[in-house]
Structure formats: structure tokens, C-alpha cells
Amino acid sequence: MSYIGAAIGSFGFGSLSDDFGRKKLIMMGDLCFMFGIILFIGPTNVNCLIIGRFFAGFGIGTQMSLVPLYLSEIAPIEVRGRIISSCILNFAVGQLIAGSFENFIGEHWRSVFLAGLVPAMI
User: Fold this and answer.
1) Residue 76 pLDDT grade (very low, low, confident, very high; cuts 50, 70, 90)
2) How much is the mean pLDDT over the chain?
3) Which domains does the chain have, with CATH numbers?
4) Distance CA 90, CA 56 (A)
5) For 2-35, what is each residue's pLDDT tens digit?
6) Strands (E) located in 61-115
7) Using one digit for the tens of pLDDT, what is the confidence trace for 84-119?
8) Interatomic CA distance for residues 116 and 118, integer angstroms
9) C-beta separation of 107 from 96 below 8 A
10) What is the CA radius of gyration of the chain?
11) Which residue, 25, 51, 64, 99, is the most exposed by fewest CB within 10 angstroms?
């Protein structure tokens, strides 16, 4: 379900960022991600978990498409390539770290999702 949310977030917000501004939509994507994480933390049923996955995926999709674009606009020409490359590398390393936690968390999976709130709040 998070993949569906990510696809909608990445395709839908590209053109909207021209109208409303990239920074505002990046912050909105953060809010969607935080809302999804909050739904992860205390679901009492499967539907809450599925809706949370969708919102978290939606937030991730907006970040994956808008943050590199925003960075390319504000970065100086001399370091633009390095900044964008490190951003994409950090996305990939974050996914690798999150995926590796799946093998070790066992029944404490909610705490891992709770840790996802920290970068979103910064």
C-alpha cells in the first residue's frame, strides 16, 4: 500500500509544486508522512495500518520527487551535482538501513516506525 501512496505522491505533486511552491509541498509531504507514522504506532486494526502505510508512502513519494528538485534550485552551481547525488545516496542508504532492521526487530516493530518521526519533525 505504501508503494501506491508513493506513486501518487511522486506523480501528483510535481506539477502542483509549480503552482504552490516546492517548500510548502515538501512540508505537506512531511505532515502526511508523520500522520502515517502516527497511524502505524497505535493501530487497533488492520485498516488503520493500511491507511497509515498509504499516507507514509504518499509522504515519501513527495519527498523523493520534490527534495532533489528543490535542492537543485537552491544549490550553488559549483556543488550542485554533489548535493543532489548525496541526497539520492542518502535516500538509498536510508532504505537499506530500514530494510535491514526488518530482520532484527521481531515484536518491537512499532518502535522502529516511531523512530521515523524524528527526521520528519526536523
Assistant:
1) very high
2) 81
3) 2-121 (1.20.1250.20)
4) 18
5) 778 888 777 777 777 777 888 888 888 888 888 8
6) none
7) 999 889 888 887 877 777 667 666 666 666 666 777
8) 5
9) no
10) 15
11) 99
